[in-house]
Write a structure and sequence with these properties.
Layout: H1 2-20, E1 43-46, E2 50-56, E3 59-64, E4 67-70, E5 76-83, E6 87-97, E7 103-114, H2 117-122, H3 127-143, H4 148-153, H5 155-170, E8 175-186, H6 189-271, H7 275-292, H8 294-297, H9 310-326, H10 332-342, H11 350-355
Antiparallel strand pairs: 1-4, 2-3, 2-5, 6-7, 7-8
Helix pairs in contact: 3-5, 7-9
Main location: mitochondrion
InterPro entries: Band7/mec-2_domain (IPR050710), Band_7 (IPR001107), Band_7/SPFH_dom_sf (IPR036013), STML2-like_C (IPR032435), Stomatin_HflK_fam (IPR001972)
Keywords: Mitochondrion
Length: about 350
């Protein structure tokens, strides 16, 4: 019964203590949740990811680990409660001047974690406030080293430089800055208009350059195409001439072979029986054909004295045929001479008459 009454009174006292105890690290800017300072009830249960700093008679004694812990009443007192989780802090918006004298309004988010609860409790009065102020001053310092254009281009390097600068100062506080991210960067309206005009001018410049490069490439392609067309045409003409010459050479050879074969066949035919008669008939036919073509191929016509006597012309041709059929020429030269002498005057050219 007494034990139950003691537990009820302890619970009531603990509830009153929690209601009246001040919160740790609570500022109007952050409003972050933090555990209240619990009362020493001899038997304590520490939550996970929390570190309770205990003082004995006003002096640091030890840090309670998560789980079951025992304390001495009156002598031991829980002085600080530190959260070991990752803490997110909103860095308020502030003004900063860049290297080219442009005033910027910039804010960010800071991520940190407590690594040493002892240093975080006794190294600085208000760790969150100290880290926030350090982040703001470091941000202004880093922005003053960059021009406006580099601020937007080198945003990641700016964040890493701020984290490095914060960690150099916060090591003594037992706090580790994990990362820093810039949320918004606000520039003056006139500067924003100038930046917009610069962007438009840059885009027009790139469009003009791309258009000129396209025109140049098109002209090069057209010239290259014409060059290739001329080369192909000349090669085609060359191949055509070569093929034509080869064809003509083959035709000449074929004609020569055919003529040689015809001559051999004619020679064989003349050696046979009645060969001279066949030759005489062929000569008479050529004579009549040549006389009929005189008025067709030239304007100069040599007419015999008896052009109206057709019967006489036919009789003369038959006489020549009979003479050639009866006579066997000794040599080809003598035969040709005889034939020329027996031909009528209108079939002998003036040059041959002068020669005779």
């Amino acid at each position: 019964m007494m034990l139950r009454t003691l537990c009820r009174r302890s619970a009531a006292i603990l509830q009153q203590t929690q209601q009246s105890a001040p919160r740790l690290w609570v500022t109007p800017a952050q409003q972050r949740w933090a555990s209240t300072l619990p009362m020493n009830t001899v038997v304590l249960f520490v939550p996970q990811q929390e570190a309770w700093v205990v003082e004995r008679m006003g002096r640091f004694h030890r840090i309670l680990e998560p789980g079951l812990n025992f304390l001495i009443p009156v002598l031991d007192k829980i002085r600080y409660v530190q959260s070991l989780k990752e803490i997110v802090i909103d860095v308020p918006e502030q003004s900063a001047v860049s290297l080219d004298n442009v005033t910027l309004q910039i804010d960010g988010v800071l991520y940190l974690r407590i690594l040493n609860p002892f240093k975080a409790s006794y190294g600085v009065e208000d760790p969150e406030y100290a880290v926030t102020q350090l982040a703001q001053t470091t941000m202004r310092s880093e922005l003053g080293k960059l021009t406006l254009d580099k601020v937007f281009r080198e945003r990641e390097s700016l964040n890493s430089n701020i984290v490095h600068s914060i960690n150099q100062a916060s090591d003594e506080w037992g706090i580790r800055c994990l990362r820093y991210e810039i949320k918004d960067i606000h520039v003056p309206p006139r500067v924003k208009e100038s930046m917009q005009m610069q962007v438009e001018a840059e885009r027009k410049k790139r469009a003009t350059v791309l258009e000129s490069e396209g025109t140049r490439e098109a002209a090069i392609n057209v010239a290259e195409g014409r060059k290739q067309a001329q080369i192909l045409a000349s090669e085609g003409e060359k191949a055509e001439q070569i093929n034509k010459a080869a064809g003509e050479a083959q035709a000449v050879v074929a004609k020569a072979e055919a003529k040689a074969k015809a001559i051999r066949m004619l020679s064989d035919a003349l050696t046979e029986q009645n060969g001279n008669a066949a030759a005489s008939l062929s000569v008479a036919e050529q004579y009549v054909s040549a006389f009929s073509n005189l008025a067709k191929q030239t304007n100069t016509i040599l007419l015999p004295s008896n052009t109206g006597d057709i019967t006489g012309m036919v009789t003369q041709a038959m006489t020549i045929y009979s003479t050639l059929a009866k006579t066997t020429p000794a040599t080809s030269v003598e035969a040709a001479q005889v034939k020329k002498e027996e031909l009528p005057d209108f079939l002998v050219s003036p040059e041959e008459q002068r020669t005779q």
